[in-house]
Amino acid sequence: MFARIMAVVLAAILLTTIGLSAVWYITLRNQQIDARLDYLISEAQDIAYLASNYNDSSDIWNYFPVYGSTTGNDMVRVIMDRKADKINREFGAYIAVVDRSSNVMDNLPAAYREDPEFVASLNSEEINSALNKIIGGETIRLRSSAGPDPTFTVGVPFTRRGFIYGAVFIQTKAQRIESGLNEILLKAGLLAAGVMLLSGVAVFLFVRGAMKPVRSLSAAAGAIAGGDFSPRLAEDKGGREMREVSRTFNHMTKTLADVEEGRREFVANVSHELRSPITSIRGFAEGMADGVIPPEEQPKYLRLVADESKRLSSLVDDLLALSRLEREDAKPDWSVFDINEMLRRAIIRRMDDLDKKRIEAECDPAVDPCPVRADSDRIEQVIINLLDNALKFTGEDGKIRLSSAVNGNIVEVTVWDNGPGVPPEDRDRIFDRFFTGDRAHTSGKGTGLGLSICQRIMEMHGQTIRLLDTAEGAAFRFTLEYAPDGKNLTETEKNA
Known about the structure:
Blueprint: H1 2-52, H2 74-91, E1 94-99, E2 104-106, H3 108-114, H4 116-120, H5 124-135, E3 140-144, E4 151-160, E5 163-173, H6 174-178, H7 181-225, H8 240-290, H9 298-325, E6 335-338, H10 339-349, H11 351-356, E7 360-365, E8 371-374, H12 376-393, E9 399-407, E10 410-417, H13 450-460, E11 465-467, E12 474-482, H14 491-495
Parallel strand pairs: 7-9
Antiparallel strand pairs: 1-2, 1-5, 3-4, 4-5, 6-8, 8-12, 9-10, 10-12, 11-12
Helix pairs in contact: 1-2, 1-7, 7-8, 8-9, 9-13, 10-12, 12-13
């Protein structure tokens, strides 16, 4: 992955660098050409100034002699000769000064000596066209590809006595103007190479630093796949997104570790709870089969075997119930029913157990009837579990009260008993699976799954169940949705 990212980034940098280098090269090339043409125009303007101050004598309209005589039109002609010679030496240019009377003075012999092929390629029609533009008052700078070799042409008019009198014409090979561009190309190449090198190093260091958290993430993910949930990522490394990923990953690993710890604890608890009745059943059965338990004692031990079998069956039933409730597709079978009637039925179903311990049980509704919207079978399971829990830990001649009250659009159902209550140190774990602390309200009896099942059922309903703070005994309260008009059930829920 690191190599692919480096390749992509370097390819992008390479394309960008080539593009910028090309733009830079073209810009410098055009600037150099413009600078040389500006120089030629400046020289042409100097010659035009000298020509405008030249004497009208016809004997001056001859070709430029190299370093001509100072007689006749004095030093003006000498200066013009020297400028023409300088331009010719620098650019191999053909230079002509033409007036309106078609008098011409040029450097044709000198230009021929410099570059015969260039002079031979001069196009008279092209020259006449350019001279007409110049005498017409234009300053020209042209590039032409009409001949065997491209050429550049510059020209300026000159005046005498206030009107345009003639033209200065300079033409040279494009090669002479564009020479030296290879140096610019070399510089552009070196610049591009330098940029690529520096960029490559910078990108390498940056990507390597940016990929370090990713590599750590990959290593940690591999460890988790192998069952090790201890790896944690540094949450202060990398960019904002990587820090967010690290925090999320650490939260995930902590959650997985908690789930794994809960799974192991669950398996250990289940194993322990199953082993105890199975061991008792096997021990009693082997004792009777081996004759260790005399025949007259066997009925008592058979009763113990039956009790342990019942306990084992209850544990399996609770485990299956909890498993069904925790399925992802588990959902309530909604209906509207009277919660007070359900409370009364629960007391009637446990009347024998209540009578045995002479426990006084009462139903105390604040509103009667009290319709609620819920899964009636599941809620009945919650009430029976809470009532059985109260029965187990309420002594003889005790009291149990089941009540309901309306609070806005919520119905609060409370199951209270005057038993020993739940010690403060056990309150936070009262709904944990298999929690059967010696001093807890569920101590020593049952499977320790009843309250966990109740909590899961209330979560399915989007409601709550909690242990209340009471001065005496213990009280559990759960909430349900109040349905006074019986119309809270949607069509989808009615047909479910």
